[in-house]
Write a structure and sequence with these properties.
It contains 21 helices and 22 strands. It is an alpha+beta fold. The protein is elongated. Bound molecules: adenosine-5'-diphosphate and magnesium ion.
């Protein structure tokens, strides 16, 4: 509990003791009434002041206003204890809520804790402790055991293991040695390493994630916006209703004033929308916080809402369903040596971050003279064009060869075939193959168990390879040989059939599809900025099982939100009806308001528990 919360608790207890003592020992005496009034102010003054403040600012109708007129009214008709009780329980509810919200903030804060407070930099041969923002690209950091890696970079000296669980939810440590990339936010576990900084703090993984989490609160779900709009309209209606209730019967039907003022006050207290205003945003907040601890970053409550209704999941193949690290199976050159063909392919691919490129470069092993490469242009979904020395090379699939008019031929072997041409002259092809991720089949099965009626795999790869992969993992539909724009068309077709469609990709050649689907989920976001930016949900590692997990979280959240809305509305409607008939007193009204709020908050807290 914070200091402020403790003070409020003390005031609540003191007010309860004073008012109960005054009521029992000094019943009917002037001193007793003064003490009860004092107890009222002890818990209520704050509420009265903030209601008055809101009125001055033009925001008249909020729950504090309802509480203020209800209790002042109760005092006016001599219901002193009731007035104290309403304020007391209202404040108790507020206290409860602030503790609960504090708790879910903390779980997001633990994610926030990925930012290192300082970076130790080697400058002029001396170690300096700077804030991460002050470090420049290319400088050398020293990261000791137990410290967080402050910026993204590459290990230049030493070896260690790091734990990136705060980022990915994956608690197995990874080993890192010279030449390995290391991400900011990971904790250094076992050895001192030197790291060459590869990007400034603003561009670092940590900064991107923090920004994403901070902004997520702004993308409100429909349910949340509905509650805000509802409260704005609803409160004036309630006040009007209460006015009618206390004016009409006494004026028109000569009923006793006291009785009907009392009923109107009961009506006001019950009508307070606290339970909804507090519990709905809290459920979303809790779900986003809980998911982030598992390495699932959800950019806004609205995506949880849509995800819960999903019936179709579309996957990209390379890097999403498959590992994206190809092995070279065969090199089939025409008229040149195998080594030369691989050398040309790897050199042309030097600046590409496509999984195909990375695999060719990794197989090549030899040194690549970067100054030989002049211009490189990526032809999305087909391959690459590079000018090396003064020759123009094309490296890519059959469609690319068609496009440039080279005379090429297919390969007999299974796998993804990468063709290489020098201008129109065909130089041969390299056959590479990828492995399906271990959990891919299981991930699809779990989606089906959740009632997802359609799973689709899209790829720019050739049909033969696509079918082998698709059948192995068990997707319902396979679409191959697609350009990025055609992938968008497939998704649009599904959307036009009224399907709530999720697209899962890695952000390479599929950013437009990620953006177009109802919900775009990017995987393996550590290191890929495009994915983090164009997706709605970001999985920090590339574990496909987390998709089912995310859907489960979203459904649970929506179920709880709906339970709370219905429960609150029903209980209140019931007490309102009783109040209008004169069968409910102020005490029942207090339960109707505070009791429902406490129950709704407790229910919302279930979101955060597993
Ligand atoms: P996927 O849909 O499986 O993720 P892409 O749309 O990224 O695949 O690419 C489709 C095909 O285009 C690949 O299978 C590959 O043959 C070819 N291709 C794309 N980019 C490159 C590249 N940089 N180098 C070579 N081939 C590429
Ligand atoms: Mg891809």
């Amino acid at each position: 509990m914070s200091g402020k919360q403790k003070k409020l608790l003390v005031r609540i207890i003191a007010a309860a003791l004073i008012s109960v003592a005054a009521q029992t020992l000094l019943r009917g005496e002037a001193l007793g009434q003064i003490l009860i009034a004092a107890a009222y102010l002890l818990v209520g003054l704050e509420v009265l002041c903030s209601a008055a403040g809101n009125i001055l600012r033009g925001q008249i109708f909020d729950e504090k206003f309802l509480m203020s007129i209800a209790t002042v009214g109760a005092f006016a008709i001599g219901e002193y204890m009731e007035a104290v009780a309403v304020m007391l329980f209202y404040q108790l509810g507020e206290l409860f809520q602030s503790i609960a919200v504090g708790k879910s903030r903390k779980s997001i804060a633990s994610l926030m804790d990925i930012r290192a407070d300082y970076a130790v930099v080697l400058r002029d041969g001396k170690e300096q402790k700077l804030s991460p923002e002050e470090v420049e690209v290319g400088e050398t950091l020293i990261v000791r055991v137990g410290e967080k890696v402050p910026l993204d970079g590459v290990v230049t000296e030493g070896r260690t293991t790091v734990n990136a669980s705060a980022l990915t939810g994956e608690s197995l440590p990874e080993s890192k040695e010279e030449g390995d990339k290391i991400v900011s936010g990971a904790v250094n576990l076992s050895g001192v390493v030197k790291v060459r900084v590869s990007g400034r703090y603003e561009e670092s993984t940590v900064a991107k994630i923090l920004e994403l989490v901070e902004n997520s609160a702004e993308k409100k779900a429909h349910a949340e916006n509905f509650i805000t709009r509802f409260a704005r309209l609803y409160t004036p209606c309630v006040v009007a209703g209460a006015l009618l209730l206390c004016l009409v019967p006494p004026l028109l039907f000569a009923q006793p004033w006291n009785e009907w003022i009392n009923r109107a006050l009961v009506f006001l207290v019950v009508s307070c929308p606290c339970a909804l205003v507090v519990s709905v945003p809290m459920s979303f907040f809790g779900a986003i916080g809980g998911a982030s601890r598992k390495g699932i970053l959800i950019k806004g409550a609205s995506y949880l809402e849509i995800l819960a209704k999903t019936d179709t999941v579309v996957f990209d193949k390379t890097g999403t369903i498959t590992k994206g690290s190809f092995k070279v199976n065969a090199i089939h050159p025409s008229n040149i040596s195998e080594d030369t063909l691989l050398d040309i392919a790897a050199t042309a691919e030097t600046y590409s971050n496509h999984p195909v490129a990375e695999s060719l470069i990794a197989t090549h092993k030899g040194h690549i003279e970067r100054s030989r490469i002049h211009t490189v242009s990526e032809i999305s979904g087909m391959g690459i064009k590079a000018i090396v020395d003064s020759e123009t090379y094309y490296v890519g699939n059959g469609a690319l060869m068609e496009k440039i008019g080279a005379v090429w031929h297919e390969c007999r072997l299974p796998g993804t075939v990468i063709h290489i041409a020098n201008n129109k002259e065909y130089l041969g092809h390299i056959t590479i193959s990828d492995e399906v991720k271990d959990c891919a089949r299981e991930a699809i099965l779990r989606l089906k168990a959740l009632g997802i009626t359609k799973t689709v795999m899209l790829t720019g790869d050739i049909k033969k390879t696509a079918e082998v992969v698709g059948r192995e993992v068990g997707v319902d539909e396979i679409c191959s040989e697609l350009l990025p724009a055609q992938k968008v068309e497939v998704v649009e077709e599904l959307l036009s059939q009224g399907r709530k469609t999720v697209f899962v990709g890695d952000g390479i050649n599929d950013a437009p599809v990620l953006a177009r689907a109802d919900v775009g989920i990017a995987m393996g976001a550590l290191g890929s900025d495009a994915a983090i930016e164009s997706a709605d949900i970001v999985l920090m590692d590339d574990e496909l099982l987390k998709i089912a997990e995310a859907i489960k979280i979203s459904r649970k959240t929506m179920r709880i939100v709906k339970e709370n809305i219905w429960f609150a509305l029903l209980v209140k409607a019931l007490i309102l009806a009783l109040g209008a008939l004169g069968a409910a007193n102020m005490w029942i009204a207090v339960f109707g308001d505070v009791g429902v709020m406490v129950i709704a908050i407790l229910n919302a807290m279930r979101v955060m528990i597993k």
